[in-house]
Write a structure and sequence with these properties.
- By secondary structure, the protein is an all-alpha fold.
- The chain has one domain (2-84).
- It contains three helices and no strands.
- It is elongated.
Length: 85
């Protein structure tokens, strides 16, 4: 029974990871637009920080690598903006 539950959880875990990855990309796009418009990026940075926190692990190695790259890019952008303040 536990083995069946683990199998059923894998697709759901990957769906959540994809959804968070997509949200981080949207957040990075929002940050870019905010910076280009010259407005305060604080809200976009806070949203990105929240999305980058926590575990995004996926069972698929390819998806996991993509998610790790997105998280890294997100953290780099957050760090860049924090040093400017």
């Amino acid at each position: 029974m536990l083995a069946l539950q683990a199998i059923d959880e894998a697709p759901e875990r990957e769906r959540r990871a994809r959804k968070r990855g997509t949200a981080m990309i949207a957040g990075l796009t929002s940050l870019q637009r905010t910076m280009l418009a010259g407005t305060d990026p604080t809200a976009a940075l806070l949203a990105l920080n929240e999305l980058a926190a926590g575990d995004l692990a996926a069972d698929d190695p390819g998806l996991d690598a993509i998610l790790r790259a997105i998280v890294l890019r997100t953290r780099v952008e957050i760090a860049r903006r924090e040093t400017r303040e």
